[in-house]
Amino acid sequence: MILRPDDLQGLRSRLIVSCQAYPGEPMRDPRTIAQLAASSVTGGAAAVRVQGLADIQHTRGAVEVPVIGLWKDGHDGVFITPTLRHALAVANAGAHIVAIDGTRRARPDGLDLAATVAGIHAGSHALVMADCGSYEDAVAAVDAGADLIGTTLAGYTGEREKTTGPDLELLEQIAAADLGRPLIAEGRIHTPVQARMALDAGAFAVVVGTAITHPATITGWFSTALTS
């Protein structure tokens, strides 16, 4: 399946589930991630977001919805699909949409965002989701040719304060500007109410990860509530 920009309308007002596990965790296995993705689709997810080449490959075989793929390399600065090499590998692994760092920060390979997006479009059939940290990032990402823009990095780049829940103010600001690209709300959305608030703030679709697919964190929330 080749995903085209017009096909993104199928994600409007829908839930996207991020299925990821961190290194060293019991669930850090591509087969487990694929099962998480399939379970999420059973529950109503219109797309899934997956990290790592093997995870993407296994998930493509487990679901029939769009797969947003990324490759985290490092922990600081630009580490979400940081270079064109990473991005093309993600596309070749089967991602319909490649999620990349969509900020205005310098990238490790020296390419600017526009050159990276152009390289992905030229070297694959994948669309590009720009993970942004601010309104200025979103504008720059659209100018660079990104097909979708997300608020994934809001609160993590130093441009905006990290909010307790989703950055609704940023969502409203980007939505009001009508940049002509689907706006994906992502980051710190922990409840159905917050997901609805993000949609009402102007999001095209909403990504939820930890609150659905990370048992260790969810268990910690309950444990803390009982012991504090």
From TrEMBL:
Listed EC numbers: 5.1.3.9
Keywords noted in UniProt: Carbohydrate metabolism, Isomerase
MF term (GO), any: N-acylglucosamine-6-phosphate 2-epimerase activity
Pfam annotation, one family: NanE
Pathway note: Amino-sugar metabolism; N-acetylneuraminate degradation; D-fructose 6-phosphate from N-acetylneuraminate: step 3/5
Biological-process GO terms, alphabetical: carbohydrate metabolic process; N-acetylmannosamine catabolic process; N-acetylneuraminate catabolic process
Top-tier EC class: isomerase
Reaction equations catalysed: an N-acyl-D-glucosamine 6-phosphate = an N-acyl-D-mannosamine 6-phosphate
InterPro entries in the record: Aldolase_TIM, NanE, RibuloseP-bd_barrel
Any GO CC annotation of this UniProt entry: cytosol
Role this protein plays: Converts N-acetylmannosamine-6-phosphate (ManNAc-6-P) to N-acetylglucosamine-6-phosphate (GlcNAc-6-P).
Entry similarity comment: Belongs to the NanE family.
PANTHER family per record: N-ACETYLMANNOSAMINE-6-PHOSPHATE 2-EPIMERASE-RELATED
Protein name: Putative N-acetylmannosamine-6-phosphate 2-epimerase
Species assigned in the record: Arthrobacter oryzae
Upper taxonomic lineage: Bacteria, Bacillati, Actinomycetota, Actinomycetes, Micrococcales
